[in-house]
């Protein structure tokens, strides 16, 4: 990279987002760490700065249009125009269809899909101006269908259509758009699943690992590595793709 570029990672206070923010900082990007609260995001930003990187923390709800506009403008001013965007923020509201509330459905689609839409629309202005950019969206193996996740599966399948469409629209401006679809990753999100179903987390991890061809669950750094590839200069001819990172061929 000739000039240092700015990457913005949503939901980066912890888990996959935090690992991705740290990885992109090691790759040489300035990194905006965005999460619901600036205080939560600051932990990751501080860790990046301690490692010698350049990072700011930003508090915003990705599904709040005004907050997104303000956040992206703030990042552009303090770190430089964001040209790499990782749409990672996400929530779960699992339930079987007959028990799923309308709020469970709306909340999940709101954060994943509306959030990715608002963030991408705000960031594309900077990418188009720079005639260069990368968008990486977080999908999931759940896009293929998963019991108890009608809302989340719809959102994560939606992320794939969103990815392919942005790849077509933004390609002429030097912007690639791809998705990473993780399998089971050890994070607070999956810890919460264990709590909800009343299984000790270690037991859930062991059971999940048995079902994965490489016989382990994923770690946040496994996903960060895939995002790093899509964000790289070398990946400039790869666009509109969905990479399943799941320890096996699911997808
Ligand atoms: N953990 C897995 O097994 C797994 C598998 C497939 C896909 N994913 C996806 O990867 C992404 C990260 O997952 P994770 O396991 O690290 O989750 P996590 O729950 O550990 O972290 C998600 C982060 O997103 C933030 N967030 C939630 N709503 C937000 C909003 N409206 N605005 C801004 N930030 C918000 C949370 O505060 C949190 O810091 C999600 O999109 C998730 O759906 C995770």
From TrEMBL:
<keyword id="KW-0560">Oxidoreductase</keyword>
<protein>
    <submittedName>
        <fullName>3-oxoacyl-ACP reductase</fullName>
    </submittedName>
</protein>
<dbReference type="InterPro" id="IPR020904">
    <property type="entry name" value="Sc_DH/Rdtase_CS"/>
</dbReference>
<keyword id="KW-0521">NADP</keyword>
<dbReference type="InterPro" id="IPR036291">
    <property type="entry name" value="NAD(P)-bd_dom_sf"/>
</dbReference>
<feature type="domain" description="Ketoreductase">
    <location>
        <begin position="5"/>
        <end position="183"/>
    </location>
</feature>
<dbReference type="InterPro" id="IPR057326">
    <property type="entry name" value="KR_dom"/>
</dbReference>
<dbReference type="Pfam" id="PF13561">
    <property type="entry name" value="adh_short_C2"/>
</dbReference>
<dbReference type="GO" id="GO:0016616">
    <property type="term" value="F:oxidoreductase activity, acting on the CH-OH group of donors, NAD or NADP as acceptor"/>
</dbReference>
<comment type="similarity">
    <text>Belongs to the short-chain dehydrogenases/reductases (SDR) family.</text>
</comment>
<dbReference type="InterPro" id="IPR002347">
    <property type="entry name" value="SDR_fam"/>
</dbReference>
<dbReference type="GO" id="GO:0030497">
    <property type="term" value="P:fatty acid elongation"/>
</dbReference>
């Amino acid at each position: 990279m000739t000039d240092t570029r700015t990457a913005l990672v949503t939901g980066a206070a912890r888990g996959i987002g935090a690992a991705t923010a740290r990885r992109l900082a090691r790759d040489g990007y300035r990194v905006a760490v965005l999460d619901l609260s600036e205080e939560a995001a600051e932990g990751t930003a501080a860790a990046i700065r301690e490692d010698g990187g350049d990072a700011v923390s930003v508090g915003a709800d990705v599904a709040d249009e005004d907050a997104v506009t303000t956040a992206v403008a703030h990042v552009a001013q303090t770190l430089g125009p964001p040209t790499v965007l990782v749409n990672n923020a996400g929530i779960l509201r699992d339930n079987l269809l007959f028990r799923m509330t309308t709020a469970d459905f709306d909340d999940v689609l709101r954060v994943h899909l509306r959030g990715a839409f608002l963030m991408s629309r705000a960031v594309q202005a900077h990418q188009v101006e720079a005639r260069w950019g990368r968008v990486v969206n977080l999908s999931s193996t759940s896009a293929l269908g998963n019991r108890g996740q009608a809302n989340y599966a719809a959102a994560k399948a939606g992320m794939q259509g969103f990815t392919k469409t942005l790849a077509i629209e933004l390609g002429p401006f030097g912007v690639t758009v791809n998705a990473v679809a993780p399998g089971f990753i050890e994070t607070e999100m999956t810890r919460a699943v264990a709590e909800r179903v009343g299984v000790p987390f270690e037991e859930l991890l062991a059971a999940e690992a048995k079902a994965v061809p490489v016989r382990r669950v994923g770690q946040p750094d496994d996903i960060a590595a895939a995002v790093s590839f899509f964000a790289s200069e070398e990946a400039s001819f790869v666009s509109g793709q969905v990479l399943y990172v799941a320890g096996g061929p699911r997808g």
